[in-house]
Each structure stands twice: as structure tokens, then as C-alpha cells.
Design goal:
The longest helix has 20 residues, at about 375-390. The protein is of the alpha+beta class and about 400 residues long. It has helices at about 10-20, 35-40, 65-70, 75-85, 105-115, 170-180, 235-240, 260-270, 275-280, 285-295, 305-315, 375-390; strands at about 1-10, 25-30, 45-50, 60, 90, 95-100, 120, 125-130, 135-145, 145-155, 190, 195, 210-215, 220-225, 230, 250, 320, 325, 335, 355-360, 365-370. The strands form five sheets. Strands 1, 2, 7, 8, 9, 10 and 20 form a seven-stranded mixed beta sheet that branches. A seven-stranded antiparallel beta sheet has the order 17-16-13-14-15-12-18.
């Protein structure tokens, strides 16, 4: 069987690429349905992009690599596509855009775009082998109990990274990329909860507080969630991309820096109020009770000197913790690292080693922040490769 373009992986990047790659495109996936990460994202409402998406929101060995694709297919282009399909949306926080309805609307939109482009979609199809005969790629596929040999002028790796193996993630793109001479940067889980071997926060499981998480000079102000095994919540997921084993993180439970003045004012007005009672007006009561022995939170407000109040608030603003690990790829939203961008064209996403080989989406060493940024990279890189393939054809 001959095709012009074979795309491996019917996720966000693969479907976007297939919608733009032109005639003779075949998109395959091992799953029973396309876009499984789209389906589960955003609590089922799909955080499909971010109003503020730009190069500064991405991590990569080459921070300039993502600029071309992001500039040529922007969040506004995808918002226009969503609007053309009659999908309504809302901004939740920090520029994060979600469907008013459910995430399958985005999958249906992409399937409609595929159909309009004339691309074929094969599901429950796995890759048994990939080679190149000097003229075309040769790919052995297993489908419905049969081995099918496909020849393709263009091959697109859009199978993602290692995150969420329960959905079938295997790192296949890395193996194929290596086969064609590409280097793979170190990969690890990103946007992932952090864990502590002593389960110190188990009594606080389910407690959430606004705060600032800092690691290696990078800080994020969002909610912090205490879990049975450690820390989660948006601020922790964000900082996990900058954390390495052995590193310390710092939590600031008073990021606005107003707690000291508030406690001092309340000491004048309500001096007989218990210190922990007052703190529980500004922090979750369970968290205050948990910290009380460690911080020596005893007595009334009137008993606390300015120096003592400063000591308490400084500690709450500089809570140093050393996680022992993370929840790993099992729950990581994305994979940090991937195919080294040095071997790819930032404009076309084509391999510098093998003409006709394209690598897009999460498989590439480009990782976005939490909040729709990784989907935007999928749309932008998929579009860039699709446009390049169409032009090459």
C-alpha cells in the first residue's frame, strides 16, 4: 500500500498535521479512539490553549526552537478554528481557555477537519517496524489481525512521550527517531505531583491553599494541594518541571506579603484572640494545626511581640522542603525532554538527517507550562509539519 504521508499517533499534534498535510494522508493509532489526552484534559472540558501562549512559556534545550511554529500558527488561529465549528468557550484563569461543553467537541472538530481534508484514520493499528529503502519509508502495521506493509514518502512521528502509560504511552517516537540518527535529550515526568517518603502531609490530604512555589529561581503563584503522598495543585505541577531529585522547593503561604501587618493590627484590636484562631482566618485550619507544633504557635495575639510575629510570618513565607520524588509518568501530564531540536527544522519540523521524516508535539524537546500551552504546541507544530508536507508534495 502506498501513501504520500503516514502519521503515527492520532493525538492533538497528529490530527492537526493530518488535517493540513494534503492528499494521500493516512493517520494511525493503537487506541480504540483518537485524542484520548484531549478527552481527559481539563477535567473533561479540554484546556485547549492559553491566551498568553508564547515562547517564554516553554522549556527546551533550545528556547528559540518553538518560536517559528508558535508565531505562524497562534492561539488566535486555533480559537478561530474552534469558533468556526460553533464550539463555545470560556477563560477560567490565567488565560486558560476551556470548552463550555465537553472535550469530545474538540476531538469531533478535528475529525471533521480530517474528513474535509480527505485523510484516512485507522484505529487499533500498531507499528511492527519502520525502515527506509532509499526512496520511501517502509512501515509494517498490524491491523485487525493482519500485517500490512505501507510505503510512504513522508513519515510523521506524533506518538507523544512517556506520560500516562495506562493510555498506551511507550516512547515509540524516541526509538524510531534514534533509528534515523536523532539524539534524545534526557526525559523525565513533568507537570507531576511531588512526593515525600515520610508521607508527612497525609493528615492534610485534600487541604488546599493559595501560595507561591519556588525552585531553582523559578516561581509560580497558584493553588497548592496537600495529598496523602506529598504535594500537588497547579503551583506544584508547574514547579515540578524545574525540579530535580535532591533539589529543595520553597513554599510561600503569604505571597501577597500582608500577613505580618494583618496580625499586628489584629493584636491591637483583638489581643485576647488565640494566635492559631487568627491564623486560621488566613490559612486552612488543618494546615495551621499541622504547623502549630513545629512553629510553636501558642498563646494569644497579645502575647506575641513584633519580632515573634515576624518570625512566624517569615517561616510561613519561606517553608523549605525537599521532595524525595514524584508520582512519575503514571500521572505526569507531559514528558520533559525528547527528540533533540538540533536535528529538526524549526520551520518545518522535518529531520535534518532524513528528508521526509517529521517529528511533532510532545515527542520533541519542547515542554509547555500547565494551562493549555502543550496543546498549543501540538496545534502549532502539527500545523507547521502539515504545511511543509503539503508544500513538499
Amino acid at each position: 500500500m502506498d501513501v504520500n504521508t503516514l502519521i503515527l499517533g492520532a493525538g492533538a499534534a497528529g490530527m492537526m498535521c493530518a488535517a493540513h498535510a494534503g492528499p494521500g494522508t493516512l493517520l494511525i493509532d493503537h487506541a480504540k479512539a483518537p485524542g484520548e489526552k484531549i478527552r481527559i484534559s481539563g477535567g473533561g472540558r479540554c484546556n485547549f490553549t492559553n491566551l498568553h501562549a508564547g515562547p517564554d512559556n516553554f522549556l527546551s534545550g533550545n528556547r528559540h526552537f518553538c518560536k517559528s511554529a508558535l508565531k505562524r500558527y497562534t492561539q488566535w488561529d486555533f480559537i478561530d478554528l474552534v469558533a468556526r465549528h460553533g464550539i463555545t468557550w470560556h477563560e477560567k484563569t490565567l488565560g486558560q481557555l476551556f470548552c463550555d461543553g465537553k472535550s469530545p467537541q474538540i476531538i469531533a472538530m478535528l475529525r471533521d477537519e480530517l474528513a474535509a481534508a480527505g485523510a484516512d484514520l485507522w484505529l487499533q493499528t500498531s507499528v511492527a517496524g519502520v525502515s527506509h529503502d532509499g526512496d520511501r519509508f517502509r512501515i509494517a502495521l498490524d491491523r485487525e489481525g493482519q500485517r500490512i506493509s505501507v510505503r510512504a514518502r513522508n513519515l510523521v512521528l506524533a506518538t507523544g512521550g512517556k506520560s500516562i502509560p495506562a493510555m498506551g504511552a511507550t516512547g515509540l517516537a524516541y526509538d524510531i527517531a534514534r533509528q534515523f540518527g536523532h539524539a534524545i535529550t534526557d526525559t523525565r515526568p513533568a507537570l507531576v505531583p511531588l512526593t515525600f517518603s515520610d508521607q508527612r502531609f497525609a493528615p492534610l490530604s485534600g487541604t488546599s491553599a493559595p501560595g507561591r512555589a519556588t525552585c531553582n529561581g523559578i516561581a509560580f503563584d497558584e493553588a497548592i494541594l496537600f495529598t496523602h503522598r506529598g504535594l500537588s495543585g497547579p503551583a506544584i505541577l508547574q514547579i515540578s518541571s524545574y525540579w530535580h531529585e535532591g533539589c529543595e522547593i520553597t513554599l510561600d503561604l503569604d505571597p501577597a506579603g500582608t500577613l505580618f501587618d494583618t496580625l499586628r493590627d489584629q493584636r491591637q484590636r483583638e489581643g485576647r484572640r488565640n494566635l492559631t484562631t487568627e491564623l486560621a482566618r488566613h490559612l486552612p485550619a488543618r494546615l495551621v494545626d499541622h504547623l502549630a507544633p513545629e512553629l510553636g504557635l501558642t498563646g494569644n495575639l497579645a502575647d506575641q511581640s513584633d519580632a515573634r510575629l515576624s518570625e512566624i510570618t517569615d517561616t510561613l513565607r519561606n517553608w523549605h522542603l525537599k521532595p524525595t520524588g514524584s508520582e512519575g509518568y503514571r500521572t505526569a501530564e507531559v514528558t520533559l525532554g525528547g527528540v533533540d531540536t538540533a536535528g529538526l527544522s524549526s520551520k518545518t519540523m522535518m529531520s535534518a538527517h532524513t528528508p521526509g521524516l517529521y517529528i511533532i508535539g510532545e515527542a520533541v524537546d519542547v515542554t509547555g507550562w500547565l494551562g493549555g500551552y502543550n496543546f498549543q504546541w501540538a496545534w502549532s507544530s502539527g500545523w507547521a509539519a502539515g504545511q511543509a508536507i503539503r508544500a513538499r508534495t
